Amino acid sequence: MKTLLDLAIGESLAQPEWLTVTQDMINQFADATGDHQWIHLDSVKCEKESPFKTTIAHGFLTASLMPKAFAEVIAPSERIASMINYGIDKLRFLEPVKSNDAVKYQFKLVDVSEKPQGKLFKVEASCLLKSSGNPALVGGFLMLAVLKP
Question: What is the pTM assigned to this prediction?
């Protein structure tokens, strides 16, 4: 497994295993964020009124799974003191993640630039749904690698 500093622009990586997004994960995210909208929590109402017929994960829950997925495809580097989330470019939620569906992230390094604090990595990411093979989410993520002196 390569470190972030060893990746070449254009190189792609894929999360090795599918991650099931359970209703318990969705409930915990709702509690942590205060977003208790029925489409995420009320399976009975969803069965009757939702176009998806089941509860769905919050879009930002799906986005928040990205660091875990990235850590599964990138080895730690002795040269990096810290990784800092620097932001998101053009995040789009394309298809809902239904409760108990599984997701898997794919990443592509598209740019590396120098910053006073270290190297800024721009990574295109997509989160694929196991049920359909379609992307649930796409976006550009920015990560600052603070280098050791």
Answer: 0.90
Question: Exposed, middle or buried: residue 4 (CB in 10 Å: 0-12, 13-18, 19+)?
Answer: buried
- The residue ranges of the chain whose pLDDT is under 50 are none
- Measured CA to CA, the distance from residue 48 to residue 129 in angstroms comes to 23
**Cβ–Cβ under 8 Å, residues 139 and 92:** yes
- In the chain, count H helices and then E strands: 5, 6
**In DSSP terms, which residues pair with 20 in a beta bridge?**
102
Helix (H), strand (E) at residue 68: helix 66-71
Say which residue the tokens 């049920």 belong to. Answer: 131
Distance between CA 105 and CA 102 in Å, rounded? Answer: 10
How far is Cα 26 from Cα 20, in angstroms, rounded to an integer? 11
Per-residue pLDDT of 22-64, as tens digits, reads 999 999 999 999 999 999 999 999 999 999 999 999 999 999 9
